[in-house]
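If you are new to this repository, start here. Below is one unmodified record pulled from the training split, so you can see the exact layout before writing a loader.
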Amino acid sequence: MKEIEHRINYNLKPFNTLRISSIADDVYLPKTIDEMTLLLANMDNPVIVGNGSNILFSSKGVKRPVIITKNLDKVNVNPPSIEAQTGVSTIRLSNMAFELGLSGFEFLIGLPATLGGAVAMNAAANAQAISDYFVSAKAYDTKEDKIVELAAPDMEFGYRTSIIKKNPGRYILLSAKFELLRSDSYIAIKETMDKAVEKRKNTQPSLKEPNLGCAFKNPTDKNGQKLSAGKLLDEAGLKGFLSGGAMVYFNHANFIINFNEASSLDYINVMREMQRLVFDEFDIMLEPEVIYIGSDKKELELWNTLLKG
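And here is the target side for that same chain:
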């Protein structure tokens, strides 16, 4: 695999939106789907990274091989269909749909992610979701060692989840196809995009305040009613809570910002306190939305307590 771009002892700080420094032993940057599938066929349990918008890398470093998808950014357009590779920016997709007069991707303008992560977690906002317009995907099945095509019913989409999320490490998204809605009004599309940007700006930290998006999923109560994790965290008095360089954001309590060279341990400690106080106050156990990547013993033990609740 000599022809594939490879870095040794490479800092992942530019590849996570929390801007945590984390040295990875081996990092690969494939430029084509063929290179990507070659890597996947010859690696055991690699970490797949797009924009790193919900991945907490350990400050102690990453031992697993890392594949960064940023160069897998090809898009094919046949309106109202759009097919894009896994590393394409969601913001780029939103702008491209607007230019084509297509509606459905307006919400993506506010998500600092790549398509791979957006599909895996069924990204959604403002009454729109990736699954609403999804047609099919090509993915590498690491169990069968082959490329498979997944139709919408195969994807098992749900709230913040999909077959990719439910089977960690098995299905690696290569590309996905969507069918959007033709619109008679560019103005209407642009207004919806602007509202999405404005809402994010008013309630969520910008990337100038490094963060990983929502720390916890929205829970459901005993009657199956969806609740707001941010509201619960706010009512538990967590805005402004800090540990080391990590702090709960003042305008939205479900965000943790890196305000002063935070470590991954700082972030985990803040999450544990958030989870504990909400449970003590409301008897509701919050489930992490962030994914931890690392092998530090202390961090893993603490992270596992978060997952178990």
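Two things worth knowing about this chain: The two ends are 42 Å apart (CA to CA). The chain has three domains: 5-68, 75-187, 206-308.
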